[in-house]
Design brief:
The structure is a single chain. A 5-stranded parallel sheet has the order 3-2-1-4-5, with helices on both faces. It has helices spanning about 10-25, 40-55, 95-110, 135-145, 165-175, 195-205, and strands at about 5, 25-35, 60, 115-120, 155. The protein has one domain (about 5-205): Rossmann fold (3-Layer(aba) Sandwich), CATH 3.40.50.620. Helix 1 packs across helix 5 and helix 5 packs across helix 6 (about 195-205). The chain is of the alpha/beta class. The N and C termini lie far apart (about 45 Å).
Length: about 220
């Protein structure tokens, strides 16, 4: 049995990633990050609920000071509305976020004898986010392997899958999507208008299923 640490944000992708890791018979634990984004507090609530649902350990790592001064509307500012592939969505890019997260997770895994680090990056985010592309993943995999003396493997099972394909897999696995948080805005109910919400709603629609979370009217 492999030991796996899943990067758990509390969103749709990471929830499905967690369910997949468990379904494959791995010994799983999850790590989330407190990094100061607009929606971080809501994400953490969802991640905690997901970990409780699956009865797996969840550790929250505070990296807020690391991101002080980073330029991104996701860290403070207006969240653009519209389609998730709109040019305006580039305002939500947090420079180097997945580089930082993957590095921390690799060190965490190496420290605790964990074999693999799983990230939820996928094809749907590729147009906007450079650290969700195959080029990033391929190079980061080499860096993690070299930097841990080949003790830790970085995996991204959804690298070539769309959000709709991820939802399809999650529905088959019975993922409790009602516990997840996707919206980029700092509010209790999802807005249904930001790029992240639009992508999520499209994914459920393509699967002929109604999104189980509540949206603001």
């Amino acid at each position: 049995m492999k030991k796996v640490v899943v990067s758990l944000s509390g969103g749709l992708d990471s929830a499905t990633l967690l369910a997949t890791a468990i379904a494959e018979g791995n010994e799983v634990q999850a790590v989330g990050f407190l990094y100061g984004s607009n929606h971080n507090r809501w994400e953490i609530q969802s991640a905690t609920k997901l970990a409780e649902h699956y009865k797996i350990p969840f550790e929250l790592i505070d990296v807020q000071r690391v991101f002080v001064g980073f330029k991104s509307n996701l860290l403070g500012g207006t969240i653009p509305e519209g389609h998730y592939e709109d040019e305006s969505m580039k305002l939500t890019v947090v420079p180097g976020r997945n580089i930082i997260f993957a590095s921390i997770l690799a060190g965490y895994a190496c420290s605790y004898g964990i074999d693999e680090v799983w990230l939820g990056i996928h094809a749907g985010d590729r147009a906007i986010y450079p650290d969700c592309r195959p080029e990033f993943y391929n190079n980061m995999t080499l860096a993690v392997s070299a930097g841990t003396d080949e003790k830790v493997l970085l995996k991204a099972p959804f690298l070539f899958e769309t959000k709709a394909q991820i939802v399809k897999k999650g529905l088959e696995l019975g993922v409790p999507y009602e516990l997840t948080r996707t919206c980029y805005k700092s509010q209790q109910l999802a807005c249904g208008k930001c790029g992240s919400c639009v992508e999520r709603l499209e994914a459920f629609e393509k699967n002929g299923v109604i999104d189980p979370i509540e949206y603001e009217k």
